[in-house]
Design brief:
Elements lengths: L30 H4 L17 H15 L17 E6 L4 E6 L11 H11 L6 E6 L12 H6 L4
Parallel strand pairs: 2-3
Antiparallel strand pairs: 1-2
Length: about 160
């Protein structure tokens, strides 16, 4: 068989780098730009019918702990960023936080929901916590609080 054609640099035209010590830098990976939205992972939220009294009782406590969760790339907490869409609590004090991410390719797609769940579950009186990632409505910078917009220089 004949050798495969190569470019002026000796790299095979087919894009492979067989036989060369060259390895493309990780920064060249563009999969995150074209990746499908991450699928929901882990357990399905097991929460009963929403209890308006329990929701009212725990809502501010849940918000307070969520405000300690930061996207590692942005100096604003996820609540002020507008990533939290809904907080529900059932009669058994099980909490469900419906939130989104700034993008489906968000590098913190696994870490942020886990941190929210852990911190909400640690609230005295909460028996279980769940986080559901939702994509509708899509997140936009319009969902950010004025404080977040000021911090990030959007004014």
């Amino acid at each position: 068989s004949s050798p495969s054609p190569s470019s002026a640099w000796g790299t095979p035209v087919d894009g492979s780098h067989a036989g060369t010590p060259f390895h493309a830098p990780e920064a060249w990976n563009t999969e995150a730009l074209t990746a499908p939205r991450p699928e929901a992972t882990g357990e399905t939220p097991q929460i009963g019918a929403t209890d308006p009294a329990r929701t009212a009782e725990f809502q501010q406590k849940v918000i307070d702990v969520i405000k300690t969760v930061y996207d590692p790339e942005i100096p604003v907490d996820i609540y002020e960023l507008g990533l939290v869409y809904e907080i529900l609590v059932d009669a058994n004090s099980q909490a469900l936080v419906k939130m989104t991410l700034t993008s489906p390719a968000c590098p913190s797609a696994q870490q942020l929901p886990q941190e929210v769940r852990y911190k909400v579950k640690a609230i005295p009186g909460i028996t279980e916590a769940w986080v559901e990632i939702v994509w509708e409505p899509p997140w936009t910078k319009d969902r950010m609080s004025e404080a977040a917009k000021l911090t990030l220089g959007f004014f």
